[in-house]
Amino acid sequence: MGRFIPRRTSKFPPSFDFASVFPPRDLSGLDFTQRIGMTEERIATKRLVFDKEELAKLRNGESSQVKNPTRVEAVSSYIWRRFMDAAKDRGCGSETATIAAVHALNPRPRNSPPLPPPMFGNCWIPAVAVMSGAEGGDEVELVGKLRAAITRIDGDFIRQEENGEYLNVLSRSVDLFMKGGVEFCNFSSWCRFPVYEVDFGWGKPAWVCTTALPFKNLVILMSTPCGEAIEAWVNVVEDDG
In what order do the strands lie in the sheet with 98-105? Predict the structure, then answer.
């Protein structure tokens, strides 16, 4: 006699209405065939751990430019500065090399009114901060540019995205990248994802990490199991490592 196993019902069932907010667009006039960041070069992944004390030091050092910089902003600015130094060492435009930091943001809580958290879809909006080698820029200045780029993504900005402006911005970014005018370092913060609460039946994980991705200049930020430190998984070309 088979056992009856009751189905669990989600407290927040997924919604599949993203198309009502961001309707499909005609992409026939845009060229997205170029693979930004995807490379045939050999990629090395580095794991950097910023403990509680290091995070406090970074945040305190950058607080003169931005009030109460977050842990993610502080770590991102620090790594961004290292990417700029590496580009300078390679001679990429020498002192005038332009390095853009791109943070992937979740538009749901930033919309006005906020979109429901369970609205299903791979939807994110890039916050782009740009700094050229000619401007110099230490972590203090970089965190200010990063904060400005992130706070710019608000309800008004998202309404413009709903009208398709995002595609035009993305197309211009692709053109700029392909012309060699700018190099991107790409950030994605998973720090508030409840990855250590996931239980597939054999217990909660002791340690969670991201898989290897063939994408250069990619930085994934994750909380450590204790929640007080941040792990940065950084993809770089092997020669830069």
Answer: 43-50, 230-237, 218-223, 183-189, 98-105, 125-132
Residue 105 lies in a domain: yes
Question: What CATH number corresponds to the domain at position 122?
Answer: 3.30.559.10
Please name the residue ranges forming H helices in the chain: 18-21, 52-62, 71-90, 139-151, 155-162, 165-178
Distance CA 45, CA 37 (A): 14
Between helix 71-90 and helix 52-62 the angle, nearest 10°, is: 80
Query: Is 177 domain-assigned?
Result: yes
Domain count along the chain:
1
Count Cβ atoms within 10 A of the Cβ of residue 224 and give its class: 0-12 exposed, 13-18 middle, 19 or more buried.
middle
Q: Is the residue at 231 inside a domain?
A: yes
239 backbone dihedrals φ, ψ, rounded to 5°: -65, -20
Whole-structure pTM value: 0.82
Weakest-pLDDT range from 72-76, 80-84, 134-138: 134-138
Q: Which residue has the tokens 């004390």?
A: 53
Q: Which amino acid is at 112?
A: S
- Over the stretch 95-123, which tens digit does the pLDDT of each residue have? 556 788 999 998 888 888 888 878 887 77
Q: Which domain holds residue 132?
A: 42-195+205-240
Has residue 60 been placed in a domain? Answer: yes
